Amino acid sequence: MSAQAKPLGAVQKMARLTRVFGTPALRVRFVRGLRFRLMLSYVIFFSLLLVALGLLFRHELKTQLDGDVETLLNDDWGAIKGWVSIENARPKWEQPEDEDETGIVAQLKQVYFIADDRGNALEYSDEYQSLRLDSRSEIQRILELPEGKTEYTVRRDGEGKPYLIKRGWMAGPRRRLHYFLAMGRSLADSQRTVAQLTRDYFLFLPVLIALSSLLGWIFAGRALGPLNSVAQAALNITGSNLSLRIPQRGAGDELDRLIHSFNRMTARLSQSFEQIRRFSTDVSHELRTPLTSIRGQLEVALFTAETPEQYREAMTNALEDVERLSSIVRALLLLSEAESGQLALQKAPLDLGEVALDIVEQFQIPAQEKALRLRANIVPGCVVPADRVQIDRLLSNLLSNAVKYTPAGGSVWVRVGPAESPTFASVEVEDSGVGIAAGDLPHIFDRFYRVRNAETNRVSGLGLGLSFVSWIVEAHGGRIDVASTPGAGTRFRILLPREAEPVAPRQAEPEAALRNA
Hints:
Blueprint lengths: L1 H20 L2 H9 L1 H50 E4 L2 E4 L5 H10 L3 E4 L5 E4 L1 H5 L5 H8 L7 E6 L5 E10 L6 E9 L1 H49 L17 H51 L3 H33 L7 E4 H11 L1 H6 L3 E6 L4 E4 L1 H17 L6 E8 L5 E8 L33 H11 L3 E7 L3 E9 L13 H5 L2
Parallel strand pairs: 9-11
Antiparallel strand pairs: 1-2, 3-4, 3-7, 5-6, 6-7, 8-10, 11-12, 12-14, 13-14
Helix pairs in contact: 3-7, 8-9, 10-12, 12-13
């Protein structure tokens, strides 16, 4: 029984401790909690403040009580010279006439010492003797002090009681003779009062600290109440209700700024989720169209083709759709590599005018098919350190958008030249197309974002081109500005840092024709 009772008792004891203090994990979580830390900070600050105030009050009280004793001692010093005189080298006390004077003389005689100019003791009280009579050397030093000059010192008797002693000299019957005089007052009462107050205060201090801990816990809970509301609201936000916003408290404090930042974060998340949903829809549409076309063409060839030419035509059409499908996948992979930092730039001195002329020449046929005027205005010698492949992609994306969103009979301009600042080169692509609404301008460089209106809905795309443009400009240390008027056109202006020493530009044959087109 005893062998089994011991383990059972230990288990019961551990169970009781667990009920009282909780599991170790709960205790750790409690100690690390923000409410506990705020309460602990408050208690530590309040405790240090109380200790500092107690010590300060103790010092002030001791100073005040010691000052009162010193004042009484000074009064005794002035009074004793009216009650004692030196006659025949001996102190002579005047006889009091009433009870009040008797009490005064008795007080003066409690702690005093009189010696002649050679250091010989003439008269002293028993209490002063218990404090140690002054030596001859000390008496001689005091007698040499200037007239009216005195000294204060603290001495303790055999029982350790402190006394404040005042020492100086008094004149004898002949002014040339000085007599040593010392008087004292006990500091025991004042020090006892200070010690009692200090003891009572610091005995009561734990109660104050415990009370401050309780108040700190309550105040910390109230201070964290709105924060808990924010946390609860955050728990209620999911991917399906990102439109939920936490109301502002109107206090203008740190918590309101946190709520404002949280609401802005949820707005950005909502926008990102919306972009992803739009992207999924667009990608599904863009991928479904070529896949459906490929499947249809192959099925037709499988069931109806009879000659090699018919099979070849079906395979050719399918390969074109496969290429379209591959271009979409490549664009997605390239954007992913660019944003993840895996796409490294191969910078070299590059003449922007030459690149622009090459890209403009490539878009002349698509522009002519839509009856557009594609013009170029190039200032030679605008050299920048850049990656040729990425600059080609940048200009191709901008010109592709300009051609796609400009109606027949419109115009597209490409301008390359120095910027207002000599350290930058400027590239502009301007069109007279449908334009971009002011509400869409801040988002056109976001991934998968597409401007939705009657004109743009007729043009297919994923909304990745301008994301590439923004990344390429940023990777080259430049900046891009957009100005647009709905129904009148759009102008993209790009500023890229220039090379210190530009190289001579390559002369292209179609340059003159492009400038005059």
